[in-house]
Design goal:
Structural class: alpha/beta
Subcellular location: Cytoplasm
Distance between the termini: 67 Å
GO molecular function: aminoacyl-tRNA deacylase activity; ATP binding; leucine-tRNA ligase activity
GO biological process, one term: leucyl-tRNA aminoacylation
CATH topology of one domain: Rossmann fold
Protein name: Leucine--tRNA ligase
CATH architecture of one domain: 3-Layer(aba) Sandwich
EC number: 6.1.1.4
Radius of gyration: 37 Å
Helix content: 25-40%
CATH class of one domain: Alpha Beta
Shape: globular
CATH superfamily of one domain: HUPs
RNA sequence: GCCUGGGUGGCGGAAUUGGCAUACGCGCAGGACUUAAAAUCCUGUGGUCGCAUAGACCGUGAGGGUCCGAGUCCCUCCUCAGGCACCA
């Protein structure tokens, strides 16, 4: 062992040793042998989102795996049976893109990456413990169970064939992922991408919408659904599910008897009852509707010989402010629009031209583009009118792309006085904007500016029988009223849509279905699983899915009737693969089902699930969905698969930008490991920022933790108890001056003179580190250990200094100077160093550092202290409650700190004594000067004297 | 736009949840050791005014409020980052 901290000399050695000693062997094997799985230690399942097989491991992977590794190691030392596995998410588009671009088969590309990444992962020194049984989602052994799950869903009606809008390249004849669209054009051929309805497989996740909602725990523990997940996820998912209670209102669309739309003049000539006269502020009883008050002329008009009802349009709304509804807007894909386009319903000629143009234009835009609000509202008039039920007036029907077909009913009623979006639309197209709700200060004037719009709250006005009723109550009344009148139906809608899972791609799980000319869609029988992905296909897009190019694979016999049939050439979304993988981790080679129920019962739910915040809405929700489905199958007996979720941030490049090859700001972990060693990189990733934060890599700050490890390393040289130094300092290199300088802490023999203060500090540090690891605050845990080393060094220096002074008087300085010049100064002085910590104390400190710096601590543990068994199998130290003799109490006068009192612990209870002590202080006296004052004393914390 | 989370020294960030703001680290300045540099070690380091290791005042995005006491709680505003389903 050399004095200088040179991690390269031992890090690889220990990793090798740990492997041969089976230190991180998977606990799964022993599970098999155990008679009862529940016996023995408590389990702790630490899970990190499985990495995608992109090739190079980057420093972000280190970040996401190192922090959980520290928790896992800590838990193991604390007596848990820890399961900390890994696997690879191996299917997906990038593999196929690489294939297209570089002419490598996706499988070869992926497997090569698995190999490279595994090597890199292993230099991280994590205790990941399933390398022999690593799960790779592109192996048939794995995706076989994807297919099994799909079939189970199909059996239960949860998987179905449906249509959805997709990005479509008309030239390549294929569906494109968003990432394959550049400036609205296909990445390969540059053709303009359009939205096209494509038939595909869906999972009925909407059936689980209510179960996926996060409900606050009534006990107010902060937990929801019995588990501890970030609020960000709970709120985000609930918004995404978007449960809304409202009403579907059906409007009658009218035209002339001959079908021509120009009826406005006729309508105008009809007499309408004037509504909207305020009926005082008298409250209306909810229960009694003014059944007969609204005898407006609608029904009469509808009976008019010149007008007929040609269609109905249903609008969904949560806020039926219907006295203020002055128009309807349809999505460009709305069936009514289709009827106009196909001339089933004839609109005015000039409008017809405009409508065709408008719809064409909006088809080209992706939904995402359409959602970007705040741009100018656009739209065309259909030339038709609907009748507002409560005002009896005809209101124009428009088409606009701000209305999305798959939200609600694809048609909205415009109430411009109480909705900003409707207001803008009405303003732009000159549609009336009546006020039906008072403003925050009771305003009743006309609505002219955006600021006048009232979206929530207020009291109804100009609304006939609703006048004077508060907004939300009035909405409920309106809904009840419409329901009673048969004009609408109360409905619950969800923003969540069914999950489209089929991809017209090669590199994924084949959909285990067969299209038979006689029987239609037929499941592949369970016994025939897996439907293996054929190696030979043409994965250049040519108007059909790549799998369809392998005739041999495509042609099968129908399992039902034996007729010639075709396989489904589509593959499953990779989110399907990752929606249940942690169950497979538990029994990676199990062949009687997706997983071994017995093991799953023992090891799950997952105790902590680490991952990126980018999966707030996608992956984690699908994973929860699958868990609930598994519960319904009787495979698990809980609703939530992870008891706790922690989401990490991103390590940015040194320039503060996201790391990317093109920017040249990528930190390659291999490089930094070569420079500082694994332990330093691990420590730095913990120390640089909180786990949830996002921030830049710093080449400077990493040197700080390296220095820290260096100091720890050197400190432990004192405990070099196998007396190497007795035989001279042959291990000290003469050229290495810094080592020699350090050697003033390096005595030939030592005695212990325990320092109470330092031992109290050690216990505090153990406590702090223990708490911080539990809370995943690794940065402050390291800070605490740094503080401890600072204190330790300081005391060592004092001991050293004291002794030197007493022995050599004023010549200390020269002595020290001389020491640094000689190669074996200690022999010369023959100093006996007093150590403030015993070996067992020192070991405790080493233990709490070991999850962070596993290699260095192991080296010291075994080589300095001569331990036979790994430090990582040792027991986590327990902090002792040590009562410190004195406590510092700040004394404030009028809230400003004026002095610090050092008070004996026993006196803390006694307010009088503490106050008396404070009053003796000159610094405090000065501010009191015989004035009257009030005493506020918080025991053991602070004393505040308030002068009036 | 909506939602979520932030704004604290030159920088990354602490602060037992209302009790000494700036722990720990980086950087910087000075010193020791070196022919020199690197490395290492020591000292200092929020701002303003002081001969100052005397002291005073000001300081946690802005403004107001509650309180003996506010980075922390309340109100109004400014601002930044992330998310908003065929992306791993």
């Amino acid at each position: 062992m050399t004095i200088k901290y040179q991690p390269k000399e031992f890090e690889a050695k220990w990793r090798e040793k740990w492997k041969t000693e089976g230190l991180y062997g998977t606990p799964l094997r022993s599970l098999n042998q155990r008679a009862t799985l529940g016996a023995g230690k408590k389990k702790f399942y630490t899970l990190v989102e499985l990495p995608y097989t992109s090739g190079d491991l980057h420093v972000g992977h280190w970040f996401s795996f190192t922090i959980p590794d520290i928790l896992a190691r800590f838990k193991r030392m604390s007596g848990f049976n820890v399961f900390y596995p890994i696997g690879y998410d191996a299917f997906g588009l990038p593999a196929e893109n690489a294939a297209i671009k570089h002419n490598i088969h996706p499988k070869d590309w992926t497997l090569k990456n698995v190999e490279v990444m595994t090597k890199q992962f292993q230099t991280m020194g994590t205790m990941l413990n399933n390398w022999e049984d690593v799960v790779v989602t592109c192996f048939p052994e794995y995706y076989r169970w994807n297919q099994w799950i799909f079939l189970k869903m199909y059996e239960r009606g949860l998987a179905y064939r449906g249509k959805a809008l997709s990005n479509w390249c008309p030239s390549c004849q294929t569906v494109l992922a968003n990432e394959n669209i550049e400036m609205g054009k296909c990445w390969r051929c540059g053709t303009e991408v359009v939205q096209k309805e494509v038939e595909q497989w869906f999972l009925r996740i909407t059936k689980y919408a209510d179960r996926l909602l996060w409900a606050r725990n009534p006990q107010g523990s902060g937990n929801a659904n019995g588990v501890d997940w970030p609020k960000q996820v709970q709120v985000g998912q609930n918004n995404w599910i978007g449960k809304k209670e409202g009403i579907n209102i059906t409007y009658k669309v009218i035209s002339n008897k001959d079908g021509s739309p120009e009826i406005l003049s006729q309508l105008n000539s009809l007499s309408f009852r004037t509504l909207g006269q305020s009926k005082s502020d008298k409250k209306v009883n909810r229960k009694s509707f003014p059944q007969d008050q609204l005898k407006h002329p609608v029904s009469k008009n509808l009976g008019s010989p010149s007008i007929k009802v040609i269609d109905e349009i249903t609008c969904f709304t949560t806020t039926p402010v219907n006295f203020g509804a002055t128009f309807l807007v349809l999505a460009p894909e709305h069936p009514f629009v289709k009827k106009i386009l196909t001339s089933k319903i004839k609109s005015d000629k000039t409008n017809f031209e405009k409508i065709i143009k408008y719809v064409e234009h909006s088809n080209k835009m992706t939904e995402e583009q359409r959602k970007i609000a705040e741009k100018d509202k656009t739209g065309v008039f259909t030339s038709f009118y609907a009748i507002n039920h409560v005002t009896g007036k005809p209101i124009p029907i428009w088409i606009s792309d701000f209305v999305l077909m798959n939200v609600g009913t694809g048609a909205v009623q415009g109430c411009p006085g109480h909705d900003y979006r409707d207001f803008e639309f009405a303003k732009k197209f000159g549609i009336p904007i009546p006020r039906v709700v008072t403003g925050p200060n009771g305003e009743k004037g006309p609505i002219e500016k955006k600021e006048d719009v009232v979206e929530h709250g207020g009291v109804m006005v100009n609304s006939d029988f609703l006048n004077g009723i508060p907004f939300s109550e009035a909405m409920q009344m309106t809904m009840d009223y419409f329901k009673e009148k048969g004009w609408g139906k109360r409905v619950v809608t969800y923003h969540l849509r069914d999950w489209s899972i089929s991809r017209q791609r090669y590199w994924g799980t084949p959909v285990p279905m067969i299209n038979c000319p006689n029987c239609g869609i037929v499941s592949v029988p369970e016994k025939d699983l897996p439907v293996e992905l054929p190696y030979v296909v043409d994965f250049m897009p040519k108007g059909k899915p790549p799998l369809a190019t392998n005739e041999k694979w495509m042609n099968v016999k129908c399992p039902n009737c034996g007729a010639k049939a075709k396989r489904d050439p589509e593959t499953l979304d990779t989110f399907f693969d990752s929606a249940w993988y942690w169950y497979r981790y538990v029994s990676p080679h199990y062949s009687n089902g997706p997983f071994d129920k017995l093991r799953v019962n023992h090891l799950t739910p997952v105790d902590v699930y680490f991952g990126g915040s980018e999966h707030t809405l996608g992956h984690t929700m699908y994973a929860r969905f699958f868990t609930k489905f598994f519960r319904d199958l009787g495979l698990v007996d809980y609703e939530e698969f992870a008891l706790k979720r922690i989401q990490h941030g991103v390590v940015l490049g040194p320039d503060g930008n996201r790391m990317s090859k093109s920017k040249g700001n990528v930190i390659n972990p291999d490089d930094v490991v070569a420079e500082y060693g694994t332990d330093t990189v691990r420590m730095y990733l913990c120390f640089m920022m909180p786990y949830e934060a996002t921030g830049p890599w710093s080449d400077k700050t990493i040197q700080g933790v390296h220095r820290f490890l260096n100091r720890v390393w050197r400190m432990f040289q004192i405990y070099q108890i196998n007396q190497k130094t007795e035989n001279g300092s042959q291990n000290i290199r003469k050229s290495d001056k810094s080592d020699i300088q350090f050697s003033r802490f390096h005595p030939p023999s030592s005695s212990f003179s325990e320092n109470k203060q330092l031992i109290a500090k050690l216990n505090k540090t153990i406590q702090k580190v223990t708490n911080d690891i539990e809370k995943i605050k690794m940065n402050t845990a390291i800070a605490a250990m740094m503080e401890f080393i600072n204190a330790w060094e300081e005391i060592m220096q004092k001991l050293e200094g004291k002794r030197l002074r007493s022995q050599f008087g004023e010549e200390v300085k020269n002595e020290v100077k001389e020491k640094t010049h000689t190669s074996s100064p200690l022999n010369k002085t023959g100093i006996q160093t007093q150590l403030p910590l015993t070996i067992s104390h020192a070991k405790d400190f080493l233990k709490i550092l070991s999850p962070f710096a596993p290699h260095m601590t192991e080296e010291i543990w075994r080589n300095v202290f001569g331990e036979k068994e790994s430090i990582h199998l040792s027991e986590w130290p327990k902090a002792k409650e040590l009562v410190t003799e004195t406590v510092t109490i700040p004394v404030q006068v009028n809230g400003k700190v004026r002095d610090l009192l050092i008070v004996n612990s026993e006196l803390l209870i006694d307010e009088k004594k503490v106050t008396d002590l404070a009053l003796k202080s000159e610094k405090v006296k000065k501010y009191l000067e015989g004035k009257k004052y009030k005493i506020i004393y918080v025991k053991g914390k602070i004393l505040n004297l308030v002068v009036s």
